[in-house]
Each structure stands twice: as structure tokens, then as C-alpha cells.
Amino acid sequence: MLKNLNEFSIGEAGVIKTVSGEGKIRRRLFDMGVTPGAEVLLRKKAPLGDPLEVTIRGYELTLRKTEAACVTLEVKA
Hints:
- Helix content is 17%, strand content 42%.
- By secondary structure, the chain is of the alpha+beta class.
- It has a single domain (2-75), classed as Ferrous iron transport protein A (FeoA) (SH3 type barrels), CATH 2.30.30.90.
- The chain has a 6-stranded antiparallel beta sheet with strand order 1-6-2-3-4-5.
């Protein structure tokens, strides 16, 4: 099942399938290691849902909700 990262629940994990978005946002995500094939675990969400904290490639990364909406993942069962 495919979901955007901003739709994940705390503790949910998945594998990145695609990264969309316009030039600067997409480039920034790639520079931070958000690339297809990477495993992602949603660790925390702020009370209003922005920002999100994820674990990717062995480190913690904080993303804005708009950035997370550009990342499509396949949910791990």
C-alpha cells in the first residue's frame, strides 16, 4: 500500500518509492538522504502535525509537513 509520509502514524515504517516536488524542495530532500529505496520510520509528530521527526539511514531528520507530502512510501507490514 502506498502512502505519503505526511499521512503516516507514529511508529509506522515504510520504504521510499518516489520523491516528487519542485526543484528546490526535491533537491533538498535528496541532499538529506531522502531517496528511493531508503527505509523510513516516523518517530514523532508535533501537536499540530508540523514538523515530523523520522529516522532514515540511521539518523533522525525533521521535515516540514509540505516536504513530507512530496515523499511516497510503501508501508511495511
